[in-house]
What does this fold into?
Amino acid sequence: MSIKASYIKPRTLDEAVALLAAGEARILSGGTDFYPALGDRVVRETVVDVSGLGELRGVSSEADRFRIGGLTTWSEIIRTPLPRCFDALKSAAREIGSVQIQNRGTVAGNLCNASPAADGVPPLLALDAEVELVSQLGVRRMPLADFIVGNRKTQRKADELLTAVLVPRELENAASAFVKLGARRYLVISIAMVAVVVQVTDDGQVFDRQVLEARIAVGSCSAVARRLRALEGELVGASVGNGLGRMVRREHLAPLSPIDDVRATAEYRMDASLRLVQRALNSCLENG
It folds into this structure.
């Protein structure tokens, strides 16, 4: 199949992957990252606009997982009734640009753009999400933690389309929280951000409850968002009575590798991350 047009809007997923298989092309969905990245440049590649593929929109519940269509917008995430483990993702969705951006920006676009400051990544990472990639050769799935490999770099092949994000149902009743630090309250790129998911025992008084599982992801402090696995392990079995933030120490941030840039120094990011993790854990339990 030869591509002659510079802009093509397929009507089906099969048509879209056929176009991607035919030659070098750029994928356009919401356009909220696509157009700003161009600057003054002119698009010279073939553009495959997948925004019309309704089959890739919405959130559905399956036997063992939730399926978030790749073209689901952040406004749709906010509006969709979801279990409490998604509270962090909904909070992050409200922080992604303006309402206009949330109405257009897609989950797949946020992940494939792979910015270290992508607000959607830490909550999905804390949910142990997988991505689903489709090409003419078939379907493959991989953990989100493996999909994003660097600043603006992913494992997506040129002929693949990210069609869905898959979230296992194992912690759907767990509490979750997302906190973000920026130079101002709204419309800002993150200096640091944290998403947590915490499952606790549900018997007895609050001060008697213990952590069954904890997941903590930090973004904007490394080339890719990172889980704090050592801290997660230490929290299991901990009493929630006096709050969990007290257990967080600077050495738990060892997986992070922040940089100095125009928004903050590396040292400031490390200090901020420590406070944000503490705050997110405590907020998660207060709201739970």
Summary: The two ends are 54 Å apart (CA to CA). The chain has three domains: 7-49, 59-169, 172-287.
